[in-house]
Amino acid sequence: MNKKQLIEELKQAGATQPEADNLGDFVKALKQPLLVRSRSFKLKKLRELKTKPEKKYFFNWKRLFAPLTLGFASLTMAAGAVFASQGSMPGEPLYGVKRWSEKVFQTINPSFAARATQRRSEEIKQLVFKKSSEDLVKKSVKDFKETPVGTQTSKESQDNLQEAEAKATGNSKEEIHSLIIPKNTQSQGNSEDKSSEGKGKQNRSSQSANHH
């Protein structure tokens, strides 16, 4: 059977002219008489051509949401780490995350600096109570000294330091003692603050009276 006869036979079986031509070329290229004579093979190829589904392109939602899902998961894990780190102590794995989060909080709300200073004093007290190494206490004392000076005189911070000093021994006791501000100095500072505040109110009142 030559190519022309094969094409005619395929057309009789229901193939269109292009389908019959393509299949005829395919069979001829094989150069295998057995395949050419095999009507079942030719019909099989015809069915494949007739039933081959047309390619359809759909929007892949998975590709869109995969990065979003990954980003949300990462954000959730980061938030969880920040939350878990708030109770960590110097020398513990999450302490670095705690200090980093405090810097972020202070950037958003500068008044958080006072709370950060109080945290440093609480850490010093806890380290002493837990009998941690002197090096760790010394490092915490250094961290406390690096906080804003104005926040170091708060009652909460000074109370923590005094409790720590009472429990500390050796070099740690001396290190902590250097952070404690005498009460008369604290009282004097508070009096000056109140005096300044009173003078400010008096000046505002005077300015208001002159204006009227």
Word description of this protein:
This protein has 212 residues and is mainly alpha-helical. The protein has 2 domains: 3-51; 73-181. The protein contains 11 helices and no strands. α1 (3-12) packs across α2 (17-30), α8 (134-145) packs parallel to α10 (170-177) and α9 packs antiparallel against α10 (170-177). The longest helix is centred in the last third of the chain and has 29 residues, at 183-211. It is rod-shaped, with a radius of gyration of 42 Å.
Proportion of residues in helical segments: over 70%
Mean pLDDT: 76
Helix and strand content put the structural class at mainly alpha
Give a count of the beta strands, DSSP E runs of length 2 or more.
0
Secondary-structure element order, N to C: HHHHHHHHHHH
Q: What does the largest sheet look like? A: none
Question: How many DSSP H or I helices?
Answer: 11
Query: What Rg do the Cα atoms give?
Result: 42 Å
In short:
76% of the residues lie in helices and 0% in strands.
Task: Give the arrangement of secondary structure elements.
Elements: H1 3-12, H2 17-30, H3 33-37, H4 39-51, H5 61-85, H6 95-108, H7 112-129, H8 134-145, H9 155-167, H10 170-177, H11 183-211
Helix pairs in contact: 1-2, 5-6, 7-8, 7-9, 8-10, 9-10
Please give a handful of descriptors for the protein shown.
single chain; mainly alpha; 11 helices; 212 residues; 76% helix
